[in-house]
């Protein structure tokens, strides 16, 4: 078994089941593996030195590319809707229209700002966004073993890509599925492309993305990583799945949400700001014990 699974941040409801899945995946070989991961607060840090780290949306919210007035309006939206998002007493059905309302209002505000495409790189480099410790090994190892990484995000694709580009890990095996900005010919934001991807419709997104999964039919084993219960549906587009190992980062409201996470994820990482456990799992699956 993998020694890192004994780390104090690791919780498992059924360690034997995890062992069985890993055994079965090792037997199948790493050429049958694909990784599907959320981005914000999964591949990026939730906090650093006690201070919250920004999401893709926050990077813009906190940058010079938007006005003070817009910042205040976005902050008001965050204070209104984030408590709803993490409220374990509300059902997904109840949260759904409210999350759509939040994302739509936020995107409308951003469009009003007439953001220039050429300022996005600077917004990212000046932000406090941080990929989790161990990210270099994670991205590089997947690339070296030609294991596809699908990053599925309700954030902003243009910002997300810039974060991994600036970190030097936007390799050819990485596919990003997210909300992308639509710029006019002079490079000014005029809208967001396609249908909105938010925290609770990743399943629909996965099913719309069947072309991507079709190409990966020879990879029926999935390592899924997320930080919300909505992330569990990201692999629903995978056809003829054989094994799935789900790793969940529980970053916030631990006591209220721990049981729900343990019931849904195979491995739950509590307030763990590193990729130590996913990396250990990957090394194990690729035979680098």
From TrEMBL:
Nucleus in keyword set: no
Pfam families, sorted: UMPH-1 (PF05822)
Catalytic activity from the UniProt record: a ribonucleoside 5'-phosphate + H2O = a ribonucleoside + phosphate; N(7)-methyl-GMP + H2O = N(7)-methylguanosine + phosphate; CMP + H2O = cytidine + phosphate
InterPro entries, alphabetized: HAD-like_sf, HAD_sf, Pyrimidine_nucleotidase_eu
Any Gene Ontology CC annotation: cytoplasm
Keywords: Cytoplasm, Hydrolase, Magnesium, Metal-binding, Nucleotide metabolism, Nucleotide-binding
Gene3D superfamilies: HAD superfamily/HAD-like, Pyrimidine 5'-nucleotidase (UMPH-1), N-terminal domain
ATP-binding keyword on record: no
Any one GO molecular function term: magnesium ion binding
Enzyme Commission numbers on file: 3.1.3.5
Location of the protein in the cell: Cytoplasm
One Gene Ontology term from the biological process aspect of the record: nucleotide metabolic process
Subunit: Monomer.
UniProt xrefs under PANTHER family: 5'-NUCLEOTIDASE, 7-METHYLGUANOSINE PHOSPHATE-SPECIFIC 5'-NUCLEOTIDASE
Function: Specifically hydrolyzes 7-methylguanosine monophosphate (m(7)GMP) to 7-methylguanosine and inorganic phosphate. The specific activity for m(7)GMP may protect cells against undesired salvage of m(7)GMP and its incorporation into nucleic acids. Also has weak activity for CMP. UMP and purine nucleotides are poor substrates.
Family of the protein in this entry: Belongs to the pyrimidine 5'-nucleotidase family.
Protein name: 5'-nucleotidase
Species annotation: Oryzias melastigma (Marine medaka)
Taxonomic path: Eukaryota, Metazoa, Chordata, Craniata, Vertebrata
């Amino acid at each position: 078994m993998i020694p890192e699974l004994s780390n104090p941040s690791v919780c498992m409801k059924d360690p034997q089941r995890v062992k069985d899945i890993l055994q079965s995946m090792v037997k199948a070989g790493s050429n049958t593996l694909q990784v599907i991961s959320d981005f914000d607060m999964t591949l990026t840090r939730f906090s650093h030195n006690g201070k919250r780290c920004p999401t893709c949306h926050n990077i813009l919210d906190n940058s010079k590319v938007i006005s003070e007035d817009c910042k205040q309006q976005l902050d008001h939206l965050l204070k209104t809707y984030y408590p709803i998002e993490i409220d374990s007493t509300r059902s997904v059905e109840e949260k759904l229209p409210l999350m759509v309302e939040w994302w739509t209002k936020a995107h409308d505000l951003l469009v009003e700002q007439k953001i220039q495409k050429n300022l996005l790189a600077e917004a990212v480099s000046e932000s406090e966004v941080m990929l989790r410790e161990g990210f270099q090994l994670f991205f590089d190892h997947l690339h070296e073993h030609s294991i596809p990484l699908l990053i599925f995000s309700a954030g902003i694709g243009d910002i997300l890509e810039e974060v991994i580009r600036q970190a030097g890990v936007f390799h050819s095996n990485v596919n990003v599925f997210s909300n992308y900005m639509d710029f006019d010919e002079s490079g000014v934001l005029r809208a967001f492309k396609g249908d909105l991807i938010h925290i609770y419709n990743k399943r629909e997104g996965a099913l719309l993305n069947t072309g991507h999964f079709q190409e990966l039919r020879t990879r029926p084993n999935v390592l899924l990583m997320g930080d919300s219960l909505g992330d569990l549906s990201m692999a629903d587009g995978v056809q003829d799945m054989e094994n799935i190992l789900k790793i969940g980062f529980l970053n916030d409201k631990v006591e209220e949400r721990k049981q729900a996470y343990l019931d849904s994820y195979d491995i739950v990482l509590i307030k763990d700001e590193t990729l130590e456990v996913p990396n250990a799992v990957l090394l194990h699956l690729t035979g680098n014990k």
